[in-house]
Amino acid sequence: MSVDDRPLASFRVSMRDIDIYGHVHNSRYLDYCEDAVVEFLRQRQILSHFRHTSSGVAYHVKKAEITFHSPIDLDDVVEAKVDVEKIGRTSLSFAIELFRQRDGAHCASAHFVWVCVGLSDSRPTPIPEGTRAALSPG
């Protein structure tokens, strides 16, 4: 497995995430994906770029889309991979993939779009250059 193929984050499914059918409730997948994006930012040491108190801007979720491929069950270990899909003028797009560790099954694919907004008016504003540079490859 190359460095780029390694999971970014992993976590074990808790009882609180399980629905009456014994697998993870659909809404929890979005929580897992959001946690994976935060871990992506933390591991790259750029989480401060996304804290309104240190960056001077905020990021709002504009779109969250998920496609389910295979169920995740109680006590499964879920591995997540995150990529920056696109950096626009005022928005960021992330791709998140969730896998079941025990068998490598691809469980879900998600796409998030975050919009950078001003603190005083919550209107779209350009992504700061430092943030743009920190997210850009190489």
* Separation of the first and last Cα atoms: 21 Å
Evaluate the radius of gyration.
16 Å
Mean pLDDT: 91
Bin the strand percentage: 35-45%
How many helix segments? 3
Instruction: Kindly report the spatial arrangement of strands forming the biggest sheet.
Output: 1-3-4-5-2
Sketch the topology as an H/E string, one letter per element: EHHEEEEH
Q: Sheet bearing the most strands, described?
A: 5 strands, antiparallel
Structural class: alpha+beta
Estimate the global geometry from the Cα principal axes: elongated
The count of DSSP E runs of length 2 or more, i.e. the number of strands, is 5
Model regions low in confidence, pLDDT < 50 over at least 5 residues: none
**Which bin fits the share of residues in helices?**
10-25%
Report on the architecture of this protein.
With 138 residues, the protein is α+β, with helices and mostly antiparallel strands. The protein contains 3 helices and 5 strands. The protein has a 5-stranded antiparallel beta sheet. The chain is elongated, with a radius of gyration of 16 Å. Its EC number is 3.1.2.-. InterPro entries: 4-hydroxybenzoyl-CoA_TE (IPR050563), HotDog_dom_sf (IPR029069), YbgC/YbaW (IPR006684). Keywords: Hydrolase. Belongs to the 4-hydroxybenzoyl-CoA thioesterase family.
Question: Could you provide a short overview of the structure?
Answer:
Helices cover 21% and strands 36% of the residues. The chain has three helices and five strands; from the N terminus they run βααββββα.
